[in-house]
Write a structure and sequence with these properties.
- The chain is an all-alpha fold and 369 residues long.
- It is built from 19 helices and 2 strands.
- Strands 1-2 form a two-stranded antiparallel ribbon.
- β1 and β2 form a beta hairpin.
- The two termini are 29 Å apart.
- The relative contact order is 0.13.
- The mean pLDDT is 82.
């Protein structure tokens, strides 16, 4: 009888965390133009937090989970912390329940693909508009598929390519390379999203390096430092923007350098340490800035340390995921890929958290499918 109850409770916990992961996977889509009305009514962070809490076994509370549970009441005061709490807590519970990464990648891929096809169907039915935009810098016409911004299309395609890599890197490598390059070129031709075009190419490039056995252990130090390098670069540009001659570069990256300056301009020491609610009415298209605003330098440092430790101490175990990690880190310069809920972002957190939590949760377990 006890074994039946334990089994059913385990099934219930797995169901709860899958629902939480589902909400994380649809989260980016609800911030697009066609679904802003839903996002204004429903705050998915609360749903993710509730279902993640329901997946916790109260009889198995380790040190890391204890810290998460102690921080949760603080999130009710500092509401900007809640989003990052849901991301980290969901990733941790997925690890604890030993949900294979490939299964999650397939789930997130299908959800993202359905969202994209659904959006195309809305355009065909005339429910949403699909207005072409002329880009003067490149003298080309780009499309947003009714998502309000062509970069939103780039984000969706990048997530699809990233998740496709996680699905195919073991047995369908040729399929991944051919399909992802084709999809990436089509996305760039129709949407002109340069950052996600390059991020996808970087992921594919490092994927080819891994496929050919050229991803060596002595590269780990440089890869592990990537988040720290990006954060340092952003902070330096933000502080020195008025004194740097970066107008040409700022134009190439669609004004993101000036965006760094705006977000840092009114930061106090407390804001820098603990974060603060977003006050500017502009998109926070950068995962590092998003984490800094949501949780301050403490949370951002936690991510950088986890990433460094995971790559340095578990390089051989996570070698297959290195192309995915690098692609996500580069794409984070233009989108909050891991600073807000998303299917690919949760998986990234799972990979780096596995290196710092108890040894009974291993990469071997997460690699099973």
């Amino acid at each position: 009888m006890a074994s039946i109850i334990n089994y059913r409770f385990h099934v219930f916990r797995v169901l709860m965390i899958y629902i939480s992961f589902f909400f994380c996977s649809v989260y980016p889509f609800l911030h697009y133009k066609a679904f802003e009305c839903i996002n204004d009514i429903v705050n998915l962070n609360y749903f993710v937090a509730i279902f993640t809490l329901l997946s916790i076994n109260p009889l198995e509370i380790g040190k890391f989970k204890t810290i998460l549970l102690l921080i949760l009441p603080i999130c009710l005061i500092f509401r900007n912390w809640l989003m990052l709490w849901t991301v980290i807590a969901t990733a941790y519970q997925l690890i604890e329940l030993k949900i294979p990464i490939r299964n999650l990648a397939i789930t997130a891929f299908l959800i993202t693909l359905f969202q994209l096809l659904f959006q195309i169907e809305l355009i065909l039915l005339g429910i949403t508009s699909h207005t072409p935009t002329i880009v003067e810098k490149t003298h080309s016409v780009i499309y947003d598929l009714g998502l309000g911004n062509s970069n939103n299309v780039g984000t969706t395609i990048f997530y699809l390519i990233s998740l496709l890599y996680l699905i195919c890197f073991k047995h369908h490598r040729t399929l991944f390379v051919i399909s992802s390059i084709t999809i990436d070129l089509l996305m760039y031709y129709y949407c002109g999203s340069r950052t996600f075009f390059l991020s996808s190419l970087i992921l594919i490039f490092f994927g080819l390096i891994y496929f050919n056995g050229l991803l060596k252990r002595y590269y780990r130090f440089y890869i592990a430092l990537l988040p720290t390098v990006f954060v340092s670069l952003i902070v330096y540009i933000a502080i020195q923007y008025e004194y740097l001659d970066v107008e040409f570069i700022n134009e190439i990256v669609s004004g993101r350098l000036y965006l760094f300056y705006l977000f840092f301009r009114d930061f106090t020491i407390i804001d820098f340490l603990l974060g603060k609610p977003l006050e500017l009415d502009v998109p926070l298209d950068n995962a590092y800035l998003a984490m800094l605003h949501l949780g301050g330098i403490i949370t951002l440092s936690f991510f950088c340390i986890c990433c460094y430790k995971a790559i340095m101490s578990s390089f051989n175990e996570i070698k297959a995921y290195i192309p995915f990690i690098i692609g996500m880190l580069f794409a984070a310069m233009a989108e909050s890929t891991f600073g807000a809920p998303s299917g690919a972002g949760i998986i990234l957190w799972m990979i780096i958290l596995t290196a710092i939590i108890p040894q009974k949760y291993t990469f071997q377990t997460l690699n099973e499918s």
